[in-house]
Amino acid sequence: MDKLSLRKYRRQGSLVDNTINSLKQLTKADKTPKGNTSLTHKGLIKSDKEFLEFFIDDKPLSSLIDTFYKSKGSILDSWIGVLGSSANRKTDIIKVKQFLGKSISDKEIRQLYPDNWTDDEFEWYLEKTREELSNPEILIYCCAECGDYDCGGIAITIDKTDNSVIWTISNSDGKLKFEFDKYLYFELFNRHIQNCEYPK
Description:
Largest sheet: 5 strands, antiparallel
Radius of gyration: 19 Å
Distance between the termini: 31 Å
Number of domains: 1
Number of strands: 11
Strand content: 25-35%
Shape: globular
Number of helices: 6
Order of helices and strands: EEHEEEEHEHHHEEEEH
């Protein structure tokens, strides 16, 4: 079986294009550079982002996906792992509950959004989040800038047997599958929930 672990990971910032250093030039550019960038005096810079990366058999999942997709670049040019990237730890708890197949209450969803929102302001986001949670495909890499489900990313489907949990990533060329020991899998993610609830 495959071995799954979580480790802090940093998507390194880098210079994307040093010829564009004004908004005027950016709008006239033939095409907008790919990746999440910000405009600085040096040019367009892809920002640093820290997150928790999934390591499978001691290899970053993002690099295994790059190989599977036969990418020229990296999925991390646009996306980052869904865990550890938000300041709101409740986001991680809900995502991990998805990985574990646990139910998520409206009260837990409410904790993702500002306390000062009225019920009317929250209602649209509640429906949107419910819709995301009901999708059989679970996002594991999301937009590096906003983390919004609607921005796309990489998703998995999860199947369980008596002894294992299976992640499957599909595209038009085939499927990438990983099988994890069920007890080690639950131990890993339950430990992450505890770390989120009671940070050191």
